[in-house]
């Protein structure tokens, strides 16, 4: 119980920024984005907007980060793009999506490895530190320790002592989770040494609290008191609510444990003073956790002062409130304290019953100490019951009481049997419903798989037909036209023609050349030879250059990480068709003058972005659009099991972002 209470206390060290302050910052950033910023300033401003959105709207935060990353990649800003991906991991961590956190941080390392900026190594340390934390929450503690040690080495080389301090505290929290408090204490002492050198009050306080926590768990309360005194010197009771709450709750519990060792009333008085100060702060800042925790500890103080009736009354009132508000952790603490109050007042039956309630919610009671405590309560209760039975046997009502007791037992058995049958029926019914849900889910999966197979067959059939037609045009009709041209050129030397006939003959030859070129262009569009021979990167570069040279649209092509990348032919053809369709849509409908096609590959993740400066459109129209172009794009991306995001507004151009794993 002590561990549960102290762990909850440490959680109060995090204080959220006010929503009004965030909104003001967002307004300032939006105003900045309307200015003519450099690529670097625009990327960093979008990143800061993502940071501000984290506490308000996770979806908008991720959208801002993606926009910042697009600007950074396009401008070749390796350090800034790495920082953006690092920040992008924080809202994902808040959602507990650690698999995507690791993928995003891998992207951050990819860009930082290509940066020459002097600040790069420190940023790599931050990414590695965050990666270690993600592996910890995924349960891979071996990688957690490995990455933490790498981060410490980088931070020490960069002489960034605050980061070393935070890494030590992170490692200490891991050893707290596995109950190795001596190792935790060693790392908190290392953090405290750094905090004393830095002389920052917040770092000193944080380190003192962690050291006090470890010493409390090691039952070294006198040593913990020394650190409590230092903690009091580091902070005065103003400014930071979370700091003062932690100080009062941890300090009060420590004095209460000291009272358990030496029974000095002064220790109990100091504990009560700490809890009352914490209670005042709880009401002042409307912190329900703090109010309930301090009320629980004040009730425990009443028990230690042997005011058992007042303690019971307070704890029963708290139990009713906690059960109504569904707060099982606090409810468990209240039952633990109520059980101890009954035991210390000699009411062993009630103590045992309350303890059983407590044990149902607290797994940690499997420890030997709690087992001995439960055994002692049970023995005292059984002894009390035997004494009562002996006294009852001496009265004339013994037989009547035994009869009533037997009837009650029978009633209990019958009621218990009914409850058991009801529980069995409920579990059976729930299992039936669960099987129904699983069957429906399987049906839906099979239907989706069937649709994907149909889509795959259509797409592959379409590409085979394109390939066949391209070959027939090139090898059949192309060969025939070339033969006709050769025959006509041969005849030209053997014929005597008037000037008019010779001019008509030359026009026919020119028209034949134009037909051959048009036939080759159609065959190339149906199946580009570069796509089959050299891959997606070269084919897209040729396609964009052809459009650019035609003068219809200025197209810029960029690729990141595609050098030597090997994609299977189906994926390459499908992505080529998607880009081809998007550019053709831009040329036909967007009235754009410039477009950007960007393809990047980081690990197994392929990202495609197509942007233009055209007239744009309302995104909602896509939901009701019946055009074949968008439908084809949607089906092809679904076939590749990818995701896409269309961002467009009237007058602001269009951006299409596609991601998939290969």
TrEMBL record:
Residues 1-21 form the signal peptide. The chain crosses the membrane at residues 409-429. Residues 575-662 form the Histidine kinase domain. Keywords: Kinase, Membrane, Signal, Transferase, Transmembrane, Transmembrane helix, Two-component regulatory system. One of its GO terms (molecular function) is kinase activity. Pfam families: HATPase_c, HisKA_3. CDD domains: HATPase_UhpB-NarQ-NarX-like. PANTHER family: NITRATE/NITRITE SENSOR PROTEIN NARX-RELATED (PTHR24421). This is Sensor histidine kinase. It comes from Chryseolinea lacunae. The lineage of its organism: Bacteria, Pseudomonadati, Bacteroidota, Cytophagia, Cytophagales.
């Amino acid at each position: 119980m002590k561990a549960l209470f102290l762990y909850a206390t440490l959680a109060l060290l995090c204080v959220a920024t006010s929503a009004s302050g965030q909104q003001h910052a967002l307004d300032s950033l939006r105003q900045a984005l309307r200015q003519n910023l450099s690529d670097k300033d625009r990327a960093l401003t979008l990143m800061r907007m993502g940071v501000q959105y984290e506490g308000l709207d996770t979806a908008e935060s991720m959208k801002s980060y993606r926009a910042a990353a697009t600007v950074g990649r396009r401008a070749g800003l390796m350090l800034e793009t790495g920082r953006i991906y690092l920040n992008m991991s924080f809202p994902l961590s808040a959602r507990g999506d650690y698999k995507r956190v690791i993928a995003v941080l891998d992207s951050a390392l990819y860009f930082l490895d290509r940066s020459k900026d002097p600040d790069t190594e420190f940023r790599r340390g931050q990414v590695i530190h965050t990666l270690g934390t993600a592996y910890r929450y995924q349960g891979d503690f071996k990688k957690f320790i490995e990455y933490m040690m790498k981060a410490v080495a980088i931070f020490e080389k960069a002489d960034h002592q605050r980061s070393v301090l935070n890494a030590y505290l992170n490692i200490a929290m891991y050893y707290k989770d596995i109950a190795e408090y001596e190792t935790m204490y060693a790392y908190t002492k290392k953090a405290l040494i750094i905090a004393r050198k830095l002389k920052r009050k917040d770092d000193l306080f944080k380190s003192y609290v962690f050291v006090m926590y470890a010493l409390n768990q090691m039952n070294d309360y006198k040593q913990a008191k020394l650190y409590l005194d230092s903690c009091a010197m580091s902070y005065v009771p103003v400014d930071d609510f979370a700091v003062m709450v932690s100080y009062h709750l941890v300090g009060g519990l420590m004095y209460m444990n000291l009272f358990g060792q030496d029974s000095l009333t002064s220790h109990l008085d100091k504990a009560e003073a700490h809890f009352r100060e914490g209670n005042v702060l709880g009401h002042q800042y409307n912190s329900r956790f703090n109010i309930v925790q301090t009320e629980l500890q004040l009730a425990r103080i009443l028990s230690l002062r042997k005011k058992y009736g007042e303690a019971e009354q307070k704890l029963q009132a708290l139990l009713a409130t906690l059960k109504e508000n569904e707060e099982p952790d606090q409810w468990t603490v209240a039952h633990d304290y109520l059980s101890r109050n009954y035991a210390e007042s000699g009411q062993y039956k009630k103590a045992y019953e309350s303890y059983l309630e407590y044990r149902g919610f607290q797994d940690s009671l499997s420890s030997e100490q709690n087992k001995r405590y439960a055994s002692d309560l049970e023995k005292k209760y059984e002894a009390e019951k035997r004494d009562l039975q002996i006294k009852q046997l001496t009265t004339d009502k013994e037989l009547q009481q035994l009869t009533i007791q037997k009837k009650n037992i029978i009633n209990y058995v019958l009621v218990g049997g009914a409850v058991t049958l009801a529980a069995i029926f409920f579990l059976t019914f729930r299992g039936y419903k669960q099987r129904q849900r699983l069957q429906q889910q399987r049906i839906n999966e099979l239907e989706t798989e069937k649709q994907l197979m149909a889509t795959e067959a259509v797409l592959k059939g379409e590409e085979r037909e394109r390939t066949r037609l391209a070959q027939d045009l090139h090898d059949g009709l192309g060969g025939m036209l070339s033969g006709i041209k050769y025959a006509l050129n041969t005849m030209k030397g053997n014929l005597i023609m008037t000037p008019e006939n010779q001019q008509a003959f030359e026009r026919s030859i020119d028209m034949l050349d134009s037909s051959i070129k048009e036939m080759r262009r159609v065959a190339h569009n149906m199946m580009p030879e570069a796509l089959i021979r050299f891959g997606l990167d070269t084919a897209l570069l040729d396609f964009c250059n052809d459009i650019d040279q035609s003068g219809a649209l200025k197209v810029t092509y960029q690729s990141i990480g595609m050098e030597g990348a090997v994609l299977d032919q189906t994926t390459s053809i499908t992505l080529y068709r998607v880009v081809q369709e998007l550019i053709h849509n831009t040329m036909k409908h967007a009235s754009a003058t410039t477009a950007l096609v960007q393809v990047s590959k980081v690990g197994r993740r392929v990202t495609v972005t197509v942007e233009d400066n055209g007239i744009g459109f309302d995104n909602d129209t896509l939901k009701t659009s019946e055009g074949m172009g968008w439908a084809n794009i949607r089906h092809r991306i679904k076939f590749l099991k990818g995701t896409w995001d269309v961002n467009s507004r009237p007058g602001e151009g269009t951006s299409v972002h596609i991601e998939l794993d290969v």
